[in-house]
Design goal:
heterodimer, A: alpha/beta, Rossmann fold, six-stranded mixed beta sheet, three-stranded antiparallel beta sheet, 9 strands, globular, B: mainly alpha, ABC transporter involved in vitamin B12 uptake, BtuC, 13 helices
Chain lengths: 343, 274
């Protein structure tokens, strides 16, 4: 593994710690990581990671393969114990009862597994129950409610192995949400979904975050598109490279140095003119596959696309679309509120 | 057909047949209740491995002139923990761990049998099962422990389901998955140690795997699968006991044959439904 230059990591953390809270009201901290170090055997996968999650945050945890994203997530869930540093949780979510978790793999490998959707979703209620665990009529009512909300009520009696990838993903999201968690942790939730289903999925997450106030941590390797959905970015590469809002990311000289101006611009999704541009052409819907920008991380600044300046953006937004493999910049629904998505 | 019904009427006059029906049905229920969890967790072979361990413990018990059940159950439970630990701590696959423990146990059983001459016939009855040798003490302890297994699974049903479906998720939401894995191992050990009396060491794992796989062919939900498996298993045991009596055949083998027929039927039904 070739490490990208680590010179500015400290600077990045500095910028990070110097950030004053942006919100008008004091938001409660629900998870705090202090110099967390994670190891697999003797192999250190994450070093001295520190960050703070506030109630209502919607954080994209991004980074190249092997950067420690999934390990960090597992450690937050208590599946791995940090070898250094610690996590402190707000009291009420300490015992994992108020954490919803959506794992990466869609189904436990066995299409024969005899479980109905309703049975799988009800599983999400178990962690808050005590022995002997019993699911009441009321519990199943909750299950049906959440299925209805995610518009999969018609699947309740279906066998989980017979569903499509997108449907299974939504069933597992229902399982994560049925206990009304304060914190939702998702691991690469959209990697198996096609773009249309993906937009829909992000729409659901946005609604949860903005209307229900659920704090969301979303692990993704798709840094190129995650910026249009999440409010903050936690960029990992064996340590915290950047943590903060996209606005800060865009204006950070360190990040310009780290990623190069083009990638930085792409990742931060600060195309202020785009909503208007998108609104002007509402009929255009690209549903082409997303580009994966892993090569960007590996080589830092080695991208040789010609992208002169930001000035020509309104005009160049379509241009940008083509370059990005026809990626739709904003969902029709999410488009209008693209600005609100960032504090 | 008349003669078969006659012989059923004749059979139920015998005490040992009634005992066999009672103990056999209870073991069939516990085995098929556990079966779905074990099959889906890809632990189908653990029944076989632990049966071999039980066989060795029976050899020890006969050697010491102790009650086989009393000696078997604790040792088999320890062996099941050992199998779990082997696959947890070392980089060994579950099936490799089972196969180590299983062949070692058979070797021990054979060594003990050859050192202490004189009980080979008794030991053989544990190899293929025999309903003639069930004592009242065996009936009582088998009935009690089977009930413990069945009731425990009912109480922990939701937890065991979650652990079987997705162990990582279950752990992530704060449930103690290790406890449930060991609980499953204890319950399986008890069932196996009880079951080798009726169907024998070689055939006990069929009571765990066959009804479950049969039920999986036709069912959709989890609870339904367990219910169907249990029903199939009890019917097979009852039929097996009667047929083996009527035609003077080995009971264990007939029970397995019934299960095989049930599986073939379920498979046919599934194929026809498409």
């Amino acid at each position: 593994m070739n490490n990208p230059d680590r010179v500015n990591q400290n600077d990045a953390q500095l910028t990070n710690t110097q950030q004053p809270p942006k919100s008008e009201y004091l938001r409660s901290i629900i998870l705090k990581a202090d110099n967390v170090t994670l190891k697999y055997g003797r192999h250190e996968v994450l070093t001295d990671a520190s960050f703070t999650v506030e109630a209502g945050d919607y954080i994209g945890i991004v980074g190249p393969n092997g950067s420690g994203k999934t390990s960090l997530m597992k450690a937050m869930l208590g599946l791995i114990t940090p070898t250094g540093g610690q996590f402190s949780y707000a009291g009420e979510i300490k015992d994992n009862r108020f954490i919803g978790y959506l794992p990466q793999k869609v189904i436990s490998g066995d299409p024969l597994f005899p479980a109905k959707v309703r049975e799988v979703v009800a599983m999400g209620l178990l962690s808050s129950k005590r022995f002997p665990k019993h699911l009441s009529q009321e519990d199943y009512k909750k299950v049906d409610e959440i299925l209805g909300r995610l518009k999969i009520g018609n699947l309740a009696e279906k066998k989980i192995g017979n569903l499509s990838g997108g449907q299974q993903q939504r069933v597992l999201l229902a399982r994560a949400l049925v206990s009304s968690p304060r914190l939702l942790i998702l691991d690469e939730p959209t990697s198996a979904l096609d773009p249309k289903v993906r937009e829909n999925f992000y729409g659901i997450l946005k609604e949860l975050n903005e209307q229900d106030g659920v704090t969301i941590l979303l692990v993704s390797h798709d840094i190129g598109s995650i910026g249009q959905y999440t409010k903050k970015m936690l960029y990992l590469d064996r340590t915290v490279v950047f943590f903060g809002t996209y606005e800060d990311f865009c204006h950070s000289q360190d990040m310009t140095h780290y990623f190069g101006p083009l990638s930085q611009h792409k990742f931060c999704w600060q195309h202020d003119d785009l909503p208007e541009a998108a609104a002007a052409k509402p009929t255009i819907h690209f549903h082409a596959p997303h580009i994966h920008v892993d090569h960007v991380h590996a080589h830092g600044q080695s991208i040789d696309h010609s992208h002169d300046s930001d000035e020509d953006l309104p005009d160049g937004s379509e241009n940008e679309l083509e370059k990005a493999g026809g990626k739709e910049p904003t969902a029709p629904k999410a488009g209008s509120s693209d600005k609100e998505a960032r504090p | 057909m008349m003669t078969f019904i006659d012989s059923i009427q004749q059979a139920v006059q015998y005490d040992f047949i009634l005992k066999a029906l009672l103990v056999g049905s209870l073991i069939a229920i516990s085995a098929s209740v556990l079966g779905l969890f074990l099959v889906l967790k890809k632990y189908s072979m653990i029944g076989d491995g632990l049966a071999h361990v039980s066989f060795a413990t029976v050899a020890i018990a006969l050697w010491l002139s102790a009650s086989p059940l009393v000696v078997s159950i604790p040792i088999v439970i320890l062996a099941s923990f050992f199998i779990l630990k082997l696959s947890e701590k070392t980089s060994m696959h579950g099936d490799a761990a089972i196969s180590l423990v299983s062949s070692f146990s058979i070797a021990m059983a054979v060594l003990i049998a050859s050192m202490a001459k004189g009980f080979n016939v008794d030991l053989m009855s544990y190899l293929f099962g025999s309903i003639l040798v069930i004592s009242n003490f065996d009936v009582a302890i088998s009935a009690a422990l089977s009930l413990v297994v069945i009731v425990t699974v009912m109480f922990f049903y939701h937890d065991l389901f979650a652990v079987t479906f997705d162990e990582e998720y279950t752990q992530a939401v704060g449930m103690n998955t290790k406890f449930y894995n060991y609980l499953l191992a204890v319950l399986t050990s008890i069932t196996i140690a009880l079951g080798i009396r009726i169907v024998g060491t070689m055939l006990i794992s069929s009571l765990i795997v066959f009804p479950t796989v049969t039920a999986l062919q036709v069912s959709k939900g989890f609870r339904m699968t367990i219910l169907i498996a249990t029903l199939i298993s009890v019917v097979c045991v009852v039929l097996g006991v009667f047929i083996s009596f009527a035609y003077n055949l080995p009971t264990g083998a007939v029970i397995v044959l019934m299960n095989a027929i049930a599986f073939a039927l379920a498979f046919l039904i599934k194929a026809l439904r498409r």
